[in-house]
Structures are given as structure tokens and as C-alpha cells.
Amino acid sequence: MDEPAIVIDGVSKSFGSTRAVRDMSLVVPRGIVCGFLGPNGAGKSTTIRMIMSIIYPDGGRIAVLGGSALSAKDRIGYLPEERGLYRKMRVGDFLAYMARLKGVSSRGLHQRIEAWLERMELPGVVRRRCSELSKGMQQKVQFIAALVHEPELVILDEPFSGLDPVNAEVMRTVIQEQRDAGRTVIFSTHIMQSAERLCDRLVLINRGEKLLDATMDEIRARFSPRTVVADPIEAATDAARIADGLPGVVGARVADDGIEVSLAEDGDPQVVMAGLLKAAPLRRVGVRRVTLEEVFVRLVRRGGGEAAAAEAERELTSA
Amino acid sequence: MHRVLTVAWREFKYTALTKAFVFAALGVPLLVTGMLVLMPLLTRSSVQPLVGTVAVVDPSGTVAAAMEIEMEPDRLRGRVHRILDDAARESEPKEGVPTDPTAGMEAGAAAAAALGAASTAVDLDVERLAPEADLEAAKEKVRSGELVAVAVFPEDVVAADGTGKRFQLFVPPGFPPNHSMLLEGLLADAATRARTTAAGMDVDRLRAMVQRPSADLRRLSSGGGEAKEQVMAKMLIPGAFMMLLWMSVFVSANYLLTTTIEEKSNKVMEVLLSAVSPLELMAGKLLGQSMVSAVMLLAYGGLGLAGLFAMASLDLVPISHLVFLGLYFVMAYFMIASIMAGVGSAANDIHEAQSLVTPAMLVLMLPLMLWFPISENPNGMLATVTSFIPPLIPFVMILRVTAANEPVAAWQIALSLVEGYAAMVGMVWLASRVFRIGVLVQGKTPSPRELLRWMWYA
Asked: Residue B132: how many CB atoms within 10 A of its CB?
């Protein structure tokens, strides 16, 4: 069980003259939720399809659950980016068909499907044809098809796209349950809030290259801006002037929602916040947290490589 | 293997166990058969009795007497039986002339109608009208039902040179067509009888003399024996076997094409490929549709055999024909289905598929064109050469083995089986090469050159 869920080692893939994935290497440990983030055309889906052995890399090596995805199909659940169902099949028959293909015995299968439909808030659709369902319902049925055989590894390509907030929340909860049950979940997404909330580890991909591969804590620590924000009750200009005189502060400016105080490399945020509280009445004060979206945008704009990541880090921390 | 069987069962279930398939593939032939049985019964049940008086205007004074002879009860019964005999003769094939199956059906219906007429009361007598009688008054009596009909013969009806060829016959508004035909024939025969009697000849004897004798056609075999020549067996049976093979294979291969395209266009393909390999998917689909094809073969073939059994002609289809049908069916199905699976995987929609499959279809239409030449000469050069061209092998061979008067050489059968099955395996392998790439290609139709590249370098 100590063996990683996925090992990708120097993998490349081209389609004609387009290099979809370039020398990608990463390791996804077991029992975590790992997010693949990247703009459209970054190579996320190509990477996922190679992990699934639906397409094959031009070079490099991929190990899934200790072998090839082909030999471990029954232990993997997959939701592709392009959703598809047999339109004329009934929901229950479709899920039973997918479960049978994944090696689930027919004994108790019907109850298992009913339970999943209840869990995904799709009661009473088991006898309905797939074509009769809304797009969101179809997406949830496909999500169930990826999980109904209780796989060790779940790979979801853009699972939240097109879902309303209520259904997205249901899906997020189920993903967390999968992680809590010890399963490994990998998903690609554009929705940063989902990634931020769900992921233990993040892989940022752009133009076929891995830009960043770290845990959320590591990302927060690395890209945390050295900025204190405060919302004074009285005039913000006075507060900015006061902040400018505090030790470890290199500058302060008035922003839309209060003041932003930039700290020196050795500046202590606790000291600055205490100084601000003592000097002026405040509605709130705190250390500004970097959002994943900010990290993502900066990194993507900078391009690939560790140098770009370092530059983005400098930009964000000095903001 | 369980994945292949799971795919196969879904493919079979969602093709063959649907209302549309059951109706189209099984319901229609049953409906046609039912109609063929029911039509004569309905006709028979609607036949009305033909009883009453036929008035005749006969200036020659000879036809009315002849009519009385033709209307004698024994002769009326004989007339009905003659119609039955004619119908039976119509359904027999003429030597050297391909039989039109519909002629037999029409004759059968006529016979059944005549049988209905025979079982209904037919009792007619004659009322002579003077040449100057009021014809309009007589017609009124026909309209009112007082008379069955009025016939008006010309004076020269008995002329030996046959100038008096036409007579008039007036029947009531609701007169059934089969009564018209019966009466028309009866009056024409009465006129002939009057004409021959006037010439001093016996019409019954003449009729017997002009009856054509039939041949007991027997074909000598080179081994020294002889057997009754069965024209129907030699012309119809091979065509029926070939059509049965062609239809059952093409219908299910076409289903394979459309379901593969549907899986691509529905985007369900990638979900499937996360559970099965492309080869497993194709194998399952081929297997599932082979069961669909087998169901059609059994349904239509069984119906044909049941028909032959009903006509006590089951001996026209020896067991060996059925064994060959089974062997060549498997070969034909997997050859054609592999082409369709390959094309279906490469195409994005049915229109693209049609353009890709047209060249193959042109080749596969050849067996239909070869039916008559090969049935005529099953061991000739054309038949022998086409027996070894792979996509044609099963169709040509089933024509040959069921049509040949002399057995097809055993080496040719053996070679066709070995070559055909080897070609079948090769075609399935090439199709699998196309399939594994084609199922993942979206939005672009591959050129024939690309398809070849997929086959060789995939």
C-alpha cells in the first residue's frame, strides 16, 4: 500500500506538430485528493488519458497502482471530460452495465445502484432513460458510473464543469468521502475554489509542462504575500501614515477596503498587527492570504520552469 | 472474457430484443406468411352462390343449346376442377423459365377462390330471348336480380373462320368478379361448342386431343444413375440460400456500423474504453451482432423450411446444404462485420460512413449479380474463379454447393473454407487495428491512405 498511486516519469506526447505533454514527471501518493490545474489546452486531459492507457505516450513511463492501467481497469474509476451515455438505455441498466464491465457481481448490484442514486440526490430515476435526464443529472449518473465499482483510484476530468452550486457541493462531499475511505482521487478543474477546498496536493500544468507540484500548505507557505491588511474605523490615510512608521514595514497604501501594509523580509506580521491595533481603532486586521487563483494566474502568465515559479513567488510575496 | 460477453449481451439485447427489431425482422415475414394464408380463406368466405337464369339472345339458335350442355351439373363441377388444375399448373415452373414466385401465389389464390365457388351452390339455367326482344327490358331484369345475366351473341358466332369472336354479357351491379369470370368462360366454351358442332366436330374430343403431354424430365448422373430433374430446386433454392446469407449478414453488420457510430457520437466511447480495451469492445460487438445475425438466419431460414415442409418439399434441402450454410455464414458474417466495425470506428456520423463503405458495398453487391450465371453453371470458370476471391467466397460457394447438379469438387470446398477462414481472421485483425485508433479520433474523417496507415503502422 506504500506504493504510489501514480508514477509518471519523463512522459511526452505529441499530436502532429503539437506537443501536448513535455517531459512530465510526477508522483501521486495514495489516499489523497490531487488536483490537476491548468488553462484550456494545457495538457491535463492528455495526461489523464495517458494515465488511463486510452492513448499512449511517445516517450517516458507511467505506472498506475503499480502496473499498467490496462491491467488495473477494474480498480480505477474514470469520468472523462466528454460526457457520454447510451441515450436509449435506462439509468439503472447503464450503471449495471458499467459495473458489470468493471467486474462487479450482479448480486446486490441493484441495491448498490439505488443507494448511489440516493446519495447523489437522484431518487426515482433508475427506470428513466438517460435521454430523459437533464445535463446535470446525466453528469451525476456518469459520476456514479465512475464510482459504483468502489475503485482504489478515481480519476475525474473536469467533474464540476456545468454543474450548479448545489450539485457541485454534493459532488465535492462525495469526493471528500472517497478520500476519507482511503481512496486516491485525481481530478482536473478550472474551478480554483473547488481545488483549494478539496485538494491535498496540486499539480499546475501549462502548455504541456508541469509548473508546480506541491501540497496546499506548501503553496500557501511559498506564495504567501508579506502583506498585512487592515480596515480602520477612522480615516484610512491616517492609519496608513501610522503603519508606515512601524518597524519592519517597507510601505503602506490606501486600498479600496482599507490599507495594505507591505513588510520587509525580516518584518514580523504579529508585531505590525499589534502596532496597528494599538495606534488606531480597526474593524479588522490580518495577514493577506494568497488565493490559488492568484498563484495560478501568475504562474501561467510567467510560463513554465522553476525560474518562472520563483519569479511568480517573488511577485506574490512582495505584493 | 467476461467483459467481451457483457458487451456482446448488451449489443444483442439493445438490437434484437427491441420492438423495432422484432417487428421488422420477425414480424414482417410472419405477417406476409399470414396474409398468404388468410387471403384465400377470406376470399373463400366471401364467395356468394350463383343460382338463377341466364337470358341469351342467340340469332344462330345454336349457342343456347350448347349453354344448356355446359350448365349440366357434372360439367359445372368439371369446370371448377379445371380452374383448380390450371392454378396448379401455373404454380409449376416451366422448363428453362425462371419461376415467378408471385405467379404461384396468384394462382393459389385463384384456386382457393374457385374452390370456394365449387363449395357454393352453382345452379344455372337458360332462357332464350328472341333476336327482336327488348334488350333494355332484359337488362332491367338483370338490375333487379330477376335474371343472373343477359348474353347477346352475334349471328355469325358459329362461323368457321372465327369472325364472330365477340359477344356481350350484361351482369348485375353487385356481381362478384369470380362469377363474371366463371360465366364468361362458360359462355365462351358454349360458343366454341356451338361452332365445332356446326362444323361437324366433337368439342370434347378436340379438347382432349389438344391437351399437351408433359415430360418426365430425368437427369442422368455421370456416376450412372438418374434422378428426377427439379427445376425449382436448381433455380430457387441456391438463390434463397444466398439471399438468406446476404440479408442476415448485412442487416446485422449494418447494426454494428450504426451502434459503433452512435457510441462515438454519444461520447460514450471513452467511458467504455476506461473499462474495456478496444479489442475487447470490438470482439464483444462482433459477437453480439453475430447473435442478432444468427437469429435472423434462423427466423427466415426456419420460415422457409416450414414452407417447404408444408408443401411436402423438404427433400429439396438436404442436411448438407444446412451444414454448408452454417459454415459459410460464420465466414460471411465476420468478414462483412469486420469491415463495418472498422468503418464505424473511423466515421463520425452515418454520412461519413456511407462514403467510406461504398467501395466495399460495390464489391459485395457482386454475389447478387452472380446468382443466375452461377446457378446456370455452378462448376464453370466464373463460379470457380470467384470462389476464391475472399469477400465473395461464402456467397459464391453457397450458390455453388446448393445449385450444382454434379457435386462441387471436394478440394474446392476445402480450399474455399481454409482460404475463407484465413481471410476472415485477417480481416478481423486489420479491422481491430483500425478500430483501436478510429474510436478515439473525433471530428475528422480519415482518408483511405490514413486507414491503410492505421492498419499497418498502428
From this structure: 8
**Best residue in A78, A100, A142, A143 for a mutation probing chain B (most B CBs within 10 Å):** A100
> Chain A contacts of B7, Cβ < 8 Å?
101
Whether residues B187 and B233 share a domain: the answer is: no
The count of domains in chain B is 2
Q: Residue B143 sits in which domain range?
A: 47-210
With beta carbons less than 8 A apart as the criterion, state whether A293 and A203 touch: no
For B422-430, the CB contacts below 8 A with 24+ separation are: B423/B335, B423/B390, B423/B391, B423/B393, B424/B330, B424/B331, B424/B334, B424/B335, B424/B338, B427/B334, B427/B335, B427/B338, B427/B339, B427/B390, B428/B286, B428/B334, B428/B338, B430/B338, B430/B342, B430/B455
What is the CATH number for B182?
3.40.190
Contact B270 A80 (CB under 8 A): yes
Q: Which of B6, B268, B440 sits opposite A84 (nearest CB)?
A: B268
Tell me the pLDDT tens digit for each residue of B93-138. Answer: 444 444 444 444 444 455 555 555 455 567 888 999 988 888 899 9
Q: Would B204 be classed as within a structural domain?
A: yes
Nearest-by-Cβ selection for B275 from A82, A87, A102: A102
Whether B270 and A84 lie within 8 Å, measured CB to CB: yes
Same domain, B62 and B125: yes
Q: Which B residues, 258 through 277, put their C-beta within 8 Å of a C-beta on chain A?
A: 263, 266-277
Asked if residue B223 is part of any domain, the answer here is: no
DSSP letter at B61 equals S
Q: What is the pTM of this model?
A: 0.70
Per residue in B200-213, pLDDT tens?
Answer: 888 888 888 888 88
Of B7, B14, B440, the CB nearest to A54: B440
Cβ separation B267–A145 shorter than 8 A: no
Please report the number of interchain residue pairs, chain A to chain B, with beta-carbon separation below 8 angstroms: 54
Q: Percentage of chain B surpassing pLDDT 70?
A: 86
